[in-house]
């Protein structure tokens, strides 16, 4: 399906990109702006240096603001934890869907957080890091959720309704050094 040409309109310094979609629909995309809470690599080449309204290409590394001690070049990662007992008893597609629900819900809930903005930035979309792990069952999943809650690690425990079954959880994107220790004893989901 071919899209018609993209139009650029600018008002002062904030251009808006409008793309005409089939059936006469339009999609308006607001410009990306540099955010003061993000820090970018000093080693970027001149072609990588951002101009006003364009994100730098090095935004996938986190270097510093907010709580915790993320080191420079500390990759942003989202952890997704599934239940092994469901993987063994439910159709695979259903379990994958549960993980997708939790992941999207965690990102959407924390969409304004600097780490989530960096994780979802245009320059990071092709470089996202997600780690999918497993726990044995519901008890272990609830225990992990409580442990994360006690440590103020923001996450989404996905409850399948109307059955009220906790199926998985996902963190919001974090610098790996801040959250990896909570997941080091869990197995990769296979």
UniProtKB/TrEMBL annotation:
Its EC number is 3.1.1.29. It catalyses: an N-acyl-L-alpha-aminoacyl-tRNA + H2O = an N-acyl-L-amino acid + a tRNA + H(+). It is an enzyme of class 3 (hydrolase). One of its GO terms (molecular function) is peptidyl-tRNA hydrolase activity. It holds the Pfam family PTH2. InterPro entries: Pep_tRNA_hydro_II_dom_sf, PTH2, PTRHD1. Residues 40-62 have a biased composition (Polar residues). Residues 37-70 are annotated as: Disordered. Keywords: Hydrolase. PANTHER family: PEPTIDYL-TRNA HYDROLASE PTRHD1-RELATED (PTHR46194). This is peptidyl-tRNA hydrolase. It comes from Rhynchospora pubera.
